[in-house]
């Protein structure tokens, strides 16, 4: 898999996580621990994307 393909894949996962977080936040019984874990996963993905983008240039 090329770096560009990996970046696209991670970007898609990042967007899906963002949508999941938004759905969770609209629920009446929000689980703050679950939202926190989702946000941490999203941040790790963003950091990996940024790292790959730096290597690709």
UniProtKB/TrEMBL annotation:
Listed Gene3D superfamilies: 6.10.280.50
Protein's name according to its UniProt entry: DUF465 domain-containing protein
InterPro entries: DUF465, DUF465_sf
